[in-house]
Amino acid sequence: MLTPSAPDTGQVLPALASPGRVLALVARGAAETRADLARLTGLARSTVSQRVDLLIEHGFLDEAPDVGASGRRLPRRLRLRTRDQLVVGIGLGATHCRVALLDVGGQEVVSREEPLLISDGPEAVLDATVRTARALLAESGRSAASVRAVGAGVPGPVEFATGRPVDPPIMPGWHLFPIPQYLAERLGASALVDNDVNVMALAERHWVLPDVQHLLFVKVGTGIGSGVLAGGRLHRGAQGSAGDIGHIRVGAADAPCRCGNTGCLEAFAGGAALARRLTASGVPAATAADVARLVAAGDRTAVPMVREAGRRIGDVLSSLITFFNPEAIVFGGALSSAHELLAGVREAVYERSHPLATQYLRIAASGTRENAVARGAGLLAIDHALSPCQVDGLLDGTAQRTGAAP
User: Fold this and answer.
1) Residue 395: enclosing H or E segment and its boundaries?
2) Which helix (H) or strand (E) holds 20?
3) Is the dihedral of CA 361, 362, 363, 366 positive or negative?
C-alpha cells in the first residue's frame, strides 16, 4: 500500500491527531484498529471513534470484523477504502500520452496510451488527455466523483509550486501555462504537475526498489534528465529544477544544445544528438528510439557511438556519486534498452568513482518501463489526496475538490 504523508514514528500529539492524521496512520499500516489509534495518538477512545466514524462516513475508511484461525472474533479492522477512491495519472511525451486510473492504494485499475504531438500546444493536448480519462472512467464503471486528485508528468522543467512549465524546449506554447487549473476544472479534482523524470523516480521506488532510500533515476531519451530521491523523498530543489544533468557542460563550446547553451551533456549523449550524428554518418535515424533499434541490430556505427555516449554520461554520474552516494542508479527513456549505453556508463563510473561509493551500487535499466510516467504521476496524486491537510480540508469544507493543489 502507498505510504502517504504522515508522522514518521512514535506517538502523535493529541493536538495534531486530526482526522487526516488518523487516516494517514491507517493508510501507512501503522494502525489497524481503533485501539491502535488510541495508543499511537494518546486520544481518548471516544475521540478516536468520532474521527474514525467521520472518515468512514466520508468514504475514506472501511471497518470490518476479523476472524482468527480458531474462528474467534477479533477486533474490527480498519482499512483504507479504495474501491471508489481513484486518482488520474497522466504521462505526456513528445509523441504520445498515457493515462492511468489508480485507486488510492496504488493499484492500477486501467490505462491507455494515445498518440499525440506535444507541439500541438497545451489546450489540444490536455483536452485529449481529459477525453481519455473520461473514457477510462466509463470503461471501468467509475464515476467522475470518485476521482480524488490528478497528477501529470510532462517532458520539461516545471516550477512545482505552481505546476507551470518554464521554458520547456520541446513544448512550444507551454511556457507558464496553468496546467493544474486547466485539468482541475475539467476533471473536478485538485491537480499537480511535475517533470516526467521526477515521477518516474517515484514509480521506480514504489514498484521496483521499495527499500532504496537514495536513488538517481536517469532518463535518456530525446534529452537527458534525472530524478533524485534522498532519504526516500523526492528532492526537487528550491524551484523544481534539481536533477537537470543534461545541461551540465562536458565538452567543447562548439556543440550547440537545444537549451541555447553549448557543450551540454545532452548535446553529446542525448538521443536527438545521437540521431543527428548517425544520420550525418550515413545511417538514417530520426529519434532516440531509432538509435536504440540500430544498437539492438548491432549497427557498426551506432554501437560504438552509443557506448561512448554512455561513458560521457558515466563521467557526469561519477561526480554525482561522489557528492550524493546513491544506492542505485536506474535508467529509463528510449535509450535505456541499449545495453551498450549502460556498459559505457559502468565503465566510466567504476573507473572514476571511489570504491566505497560503488561497492554496493546498482546500475540497471528501469523495471517500470513505458508506464512509469503515468503511474508515477498517479503516486503524486495519491500522496496529495491522502495528505492530512487535504483530508482535513475536505472534511471541514475548507478544501476544494477543484482547483490547483497547494
Assistant:
1) helix 388-396
2) helix 19-27
3) negative
Model confidence pLDDT, tens digit, residues 68-121 = 555 566 678 999 999 889 999 999 988 889 999 999 999 999 999 999 999 999
Radius of gyration of the chain measured on its C-alpha atoms: 23
Q: Does domain 86-200+371-396 sit in CATH 3.40.50.10860?
A: no
Confidence at 5, pLDDT banded by 50, 70, 90: very low
pTM over 0.85, yes/no: yes
Give kind and range of the element (H or E) at residue 98.
strand 96-103
Position 214, amino acid: H
Given this model, what pLDDT does residue 169 score? 85
Closest by alpha carbon to 199, among 60, 82, 87?
87
Question: Could you say which of 3.30.420.40, 3.40.50.1220, 3.30.390.30, 3.90.1150.30 is the CATH number of the domain covering 209-366?
Answer: 3.30.420.40
Burial of 26 (0-12, 13-18, 19+ CB in 10 A): buried
Max Cα separation, the chain? 77
Residue spans of the domains in the chain: they are 14-80, 86-200+371-396, 209-366
Domains 14-80 and 209-366 alike in fold: no
Does the pLDDT at position 405 exceed 80?
no
Residue 105's pLDDT is 93
The b/e string for 202-223 (b: 16+ C-beta within 10 A; e otherwise) is bbbbbbbbeebeebbbbbbbbb
* pLDDT tens-digit series, residues 323-365: 999 999 999 999 999 999 999 999 999 999 999 999 999 999 9
Which architecture, in CATH terms, is 14-80?
Answer: Orthogonal Bundle (1.10)
